[in-house]
């Protein structure tokens, strides 16, 4: 349970400096090229306004930030992002946990069930987006047609809430597999005898879930919470791009999509860079908050 | 307090029958030990009584009422697990109070009962700690405490001492027995250790490959084993089995064999293989002409024959055990 001094000594230690350095070098190089360099450039660019052809740059200090924070569209995007990421996280984690609890109770056929549930994870976000788009297409979509039969007129191209609902479902869907795997592994690592002891102590299924299973699952839940929020912030770009392109009327323009829309479509590279910097700061703060405050309530 | 009875209880996993019909009536306050080697079905039997395994056929009744179809929580039992199965995220107090909280016991009474049990088990100082901050012996006590506070009709123990070191095991053995006498709760205790069975049981069930070979008081089982398996399993060192002349296969306990000086003396000739002096007694291992080894237990003060000497073995006919 606790590390004894003898166990600590077994940790591998290197005598020289060069070998460990060489071993971590690939990771450092990748992080430097694909994260530190672009992040540094974004910070640099956020202080300038370049002309649309990239021939000249004008230093504006914090002007880009000042302009952004005064922009009602940008502030609206904050709210959109909050709603979107909360919904994606809650839906994908909730459904995954529910499926994992069911799979954990299965004795026969759990392997098949598990394999089938993992498949969506292998589908690229953009492809998943197209898939859902086809099903909900306002003219030829299967689901749209059935909803029409039921008397509901689905049109996410015009309706803000339906658009949001669709991108949330499409984003959460691909994430359920991943969350499911972690939840199932978490559930299966809880000793059977602890559950049996609770049953003998008088706890029925939901009481056991609430008082024993869920608390013992909290390290997994915490990990997934961090990972899913980051996912909702960044990796849902493909889904939104294919399904709504941020519309209707910016209803699904989350911050990361606005970075793209303003930078590559609107050619306002200075503002786009400033938005990237803000996004970077938000995610850092969120992660720190999660580790500082949520982790305290986690039982390892 | 309650009676517990098993009527022709059988268990099948798929097509394999692992328990072939066990019958016993346990009286109020009795301490019953189920003993047998691993794989004999003893834990499965206990888990059926707990409601953690379904009963394939037969009937289990607590206080005369059939419980086969009842869930574990509806059977009024408490169980101590081999790995203790404490709730790792709860304090010792909460571990012990868990069942009472679910039953809706008032807070004041919960605290009173938990503290009372903690005093009894000498774990009062650890009530605020988490299980991971306790030693194996302390965890064992918490597991016992969790069972005691609920005042169940029946205690079930599934090899509760097998994760403790030898010294602690002897101490806990005594404490569990004493505690059970004080509380007077009917108990069913599973172990593979025949010493635990002998020292703790009012009556024991010796299990062999899914059969209850014998049910009886420890000394009665020891002196009158019903099968060769029981004779071999109960007692340490085990009973010697050998062919004696034309009289077939017989069993004689090590303490009933004695060494007679001189080759050709006694009822059976043998040579001394080696001796283990334990102080109070000496175990002398002797080899028969056909190569099989027997053990003789003699007083520690008796002379120890040298290795390789030819001796004779003698025993009283009254101590011969024969099985079908």
CATH superfamily of chain A: MetI-like
Q: What is the helix/strand order of chain A?
A: HHEEHHHHHHHHHHHH
**What overall geometry of chain A do the principal axes of the alpha carbons give?**
globular
Write down the overall mean pLDDT of chain B. Answer: 89
Order of helices and strands of chain B: EEEHEEEHHHEHEHEEHHEEEEEEE
Helix content estimate of chain B? 25-40%
Poorly predicted sequence stretches spanning 5 or more consecutive residues of chain A:
1-8
Q: Spell out the CATH superfamily of the largest domain in chain B.
A: P-loop containing nucleotide triphosphate hydrolases
Could you explain the architecture of this structure?
With 300 residues, chain A is an all-alpha fold. Chain A has helices at 5-9, 18-45, 63-69, 72-105, 110-118, 125-135, 142-149, 160-188, 192-200, 205-216, 218-235, 237-243, 255-265, 269-294; strands at residues 48-50, 57-59. A two-stranded antiparallel ribbon of chain A has the order 1-2. In chain A, a hairpin with a 6-residue loop joins strand 1 and strand 2 (57-59). In chain A, helix 9 packs antiparallel against helix 10, helix 11 (218-235) packs antiparallel against helix 14 and helix 13 runs antiparallel to helix 14 (269-294). Chain B is α+β, with helices and mostly antiparallel strands. Chain B is built from eight helices and 17 strands. Chain B has a six-stranded mixed β-sheet with strand order 6-7-8-3-9-10, sandwiched between helices. Chain B has a five-stranded antiparallel β-sheet with strand order 13-17-14-15-16, with no helix packed on it. Chain B has a four-stranded antiparallel β-sheet with strand order 2-1-4-5, covered by helices on one side. In chain B, strand 9 and strand 10 (211-216) form a beta hairpin. The longest helix of chain B has 18 residues, at 166-183. The two termini of chain B are 40 Å apart. The mean pLDDT of chain B is 89. At the A-B interface, helix 9 and helix 10 of A face strand 6 and helix 2 of B.
């Amino acid at each position: 349970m606790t590390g004894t001094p003898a166990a600590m000594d077994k940790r591998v230690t290197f005598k020289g400096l060069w070998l460990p350095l060489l071993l971590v070098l690939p990771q450092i190089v990748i992080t430097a090229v694909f994260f530190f360099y672009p992040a540094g450039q974004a910070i640099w660019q956020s202080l300038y306004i370049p002309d649309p052809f990239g021939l000249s740059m004008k230093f504006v200090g914090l002007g880009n930030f000042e302009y952004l924070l005064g922009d009602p569209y940008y502030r609206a995007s904050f709210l959109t992002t909050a709603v979107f990421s909360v919904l994606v996280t809650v839906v994908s984690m909730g459904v995954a946990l529910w499926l994992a609890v069911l799979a954990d109770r299965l004795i026969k056929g759990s392997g098949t069930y598990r394999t089938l549930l993992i498949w969506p994870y292998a589908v690229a976000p953009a492809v998943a987006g197209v898939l859902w788009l086809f099903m909900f297409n306002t003219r030829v979509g299967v689901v749209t047609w059935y909803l029409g039969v039921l008397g509901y007129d689905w049109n996410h191209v015009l309706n803000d809430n339906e658009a949001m609902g669709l991108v949330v479902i499409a984003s959460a869907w691909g994430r359920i597999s991943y969350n499911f795997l972690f939840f199932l592994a978490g559930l299966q690592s809880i000793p059977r005898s602890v559950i049996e002891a609770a049953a003998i102590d008088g706890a029925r299924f939901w009481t056991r879930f609430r008082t024993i299973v869920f608390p013992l699952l909290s390290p997994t839940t915490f990990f997934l919470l961090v990972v899913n929020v980051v996912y909702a912030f960044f990796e849902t770009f493909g889904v939104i791009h294919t399904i709504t392109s941020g519309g209707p009327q910016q209803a699904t323009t989350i911050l990361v999509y606005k970075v793209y829309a303003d930078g590559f479509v609107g050619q306002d590279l200075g503002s786009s860079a400033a938005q990237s910097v803000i996004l970077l700061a938000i995610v850092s703060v969120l992660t720190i908050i999660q580790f500082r405050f949520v982790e305290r309530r986690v039982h390892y | 307090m309650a009676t517990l009875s098993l009527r022709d209880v059988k268990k099948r996993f798929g097509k394999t029958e692992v328990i072939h019909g066990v019958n016993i009536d346990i009286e109020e306050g009795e301490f019953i030990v189920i003993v047998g080697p691993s794989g004999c079905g003893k834990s499965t039997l206990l888990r059926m009584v707990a409601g953690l395994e379904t009963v394939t056929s037969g009937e289990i009744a607590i206080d005369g009422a059939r419980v086969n179809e009842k869930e574990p929580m509806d059977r009024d039992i408490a169980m101590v697990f081999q790995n203790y199965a404490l709730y790792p995220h709860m304090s010792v107090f909460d571990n012990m109070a868990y069942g009472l909280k679910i039953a809706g016991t008032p807070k004041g009474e919960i605290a009173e009962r938990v503290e009372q049990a903690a005093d009894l088990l000498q774990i009062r100082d650890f009530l605020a700690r988490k299980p991971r901050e306790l030693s194996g012996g302390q965890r064992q006590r918490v597991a016992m405490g969790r069972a005691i506070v609920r005042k169940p009709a029946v205690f079930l123990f599934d090899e509760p001492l097998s994760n403790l070191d030898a010294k602690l095991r002897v101490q806990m053995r005594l404490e569990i027995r004493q505690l059970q006498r004080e509380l007077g709760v009917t108990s069913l205790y599973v172990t593979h250790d025949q010493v635990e069975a002998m020292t703790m049981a009012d009556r024991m069930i010796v299990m062999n490959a899914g059969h209850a070979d014998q049910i009886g008081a420890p000394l009665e089982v020891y002196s009158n084993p019903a099968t060769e398996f029981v004779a071999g399993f109960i007692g340490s060192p085990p009973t010697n089995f050998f062919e004696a002349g034309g009289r077939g296969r017989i069993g004689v306990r090590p303490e009933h064999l004695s060494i007679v000086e001189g080759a050709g003396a006694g009822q059976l000739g043998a040579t001394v293989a080696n001796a283990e002096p334990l102080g109070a007694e000496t175990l002398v291992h002797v080899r028969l002409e056909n190569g099989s080894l027997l053990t003789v237990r003699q007083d520690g003060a008796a002379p120890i024959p040298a290795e390789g000497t030819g001796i004779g073995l003698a025993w009283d006919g009254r101590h011969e055990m024969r099985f079908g």
